[in-house]
Design goal:
single chain; about 250 residues; alpha+beta; 3 domains; 4-stranded antiparallel β-sheet; 4 helices; 10 strands; elongated
């Protein structure tokens, strides 16, 4: 059942070309009232025959074919009925489970939940090889698997009459209580006052002599979980300020 060929229209009859006007006019009359209507009729017959062939002649027996998939036959002159894969077809239901399916460039616009997501215990344990990690679980795993740093605060500052902090971590402010005596305030308090205070200092006007670094006597120590005090002294025992002071708090 071949598709009817489309006829080629004749040249148009133009009054500007008297030599061809008569012949072309007659050709157009024959085309409009003969060739073209015949083409329309043949096309309608072709469409009817194709529809009948699809619906009646080439449509396979539908008995027992419920749920099958219809596809155009390789011969392009009919259809085949193919058994559908087990389960719902993708896109035919609002929610479905895809087992052993390959997704190419999937776009997920909603949150992902279910047993495929690692639990906090699985994330912190770090041994499961078949779980997905969310940003939260990744952060929990890092926190559990990476040892916590013992350094809880540190500061580098100039301790003359005007305090100037160059850099710090977890230090909110420093107060010069008196010459050589400084109070360091923590931005986030320690869990208790059982921390270690360590550091060093220098005084540019002290003739390159050593500068003693330590906590003040018990009467002035005032150590709490939110602040610590340090005191500087020269090698002769006198209290001095520091030009460069480095303090580290460990717990």
């Amino acid at each position: 059942m071949a598709k009817p060929p489309k006829p080629t229209p004749p040249d148009r009859a133009l009054r500007s070309d008297p030599a061809t006007f008569s012949a072309n006019a007659e050709a157009w009359i024959n085309y409009q009232w003969g060739t073209f209507p015949d083409y329309i009729d043949a096309t309608a017959t072709f469409v009817d025959n194709a529809a009948n062939a699809l619906i009646v002649g080439n449509l396979p027996d539908l008995t027992g074919k419920g749920g099958n998939i219809v596809r155009v036959a390789p011969s392009e002159d009919g259809v085949d009925l193919l058994a559908a894969p087990a389960g719902d077809l993708v896109g035919t239901v609002a929610s479905q489970t895809l087992t052993n399916k390959t997704l190419t460039s999937p776009v997920i616009n909603t949150s992902v939940t279910g047993s495929a997501i690692a639990s906090q215990t699985e994330a912190e344990d770090g041994t499961a090889a078949n779980k997905l990690m969310t940003p939260q679980r990744t952060a929990q795993a890092i926190e559990a698997l990476v040892p916590e740093s013992p350094v809880k605060a540190w500061v580098n500052f100039s301790g003359n009459e005007t305090i100037s902090i160059s850099a710090s971590m977890n230090v909110s402010s420093i107060t010069r209580l008196s010459k050589g005596l400084y109070e360091i305030n923590f931005a986030t308090p320690m869990v208790d006052a059982n921390y270690v205070v360590s550091g060093c200092a220098s005084n540019l006007g002290y003739n390159n002599g050593p500068v003693g670094f330590g906590e003040p006597s018990a009467a002035n120590a005032n150590r709490t979980n939110s602040q610590a005090r340090i005191a500087l002294s020269g090698f002769s025992g006198g209290i001095i300020d520091g030009d460069f002071i480095n303090v580290v708090i460990m717990r």
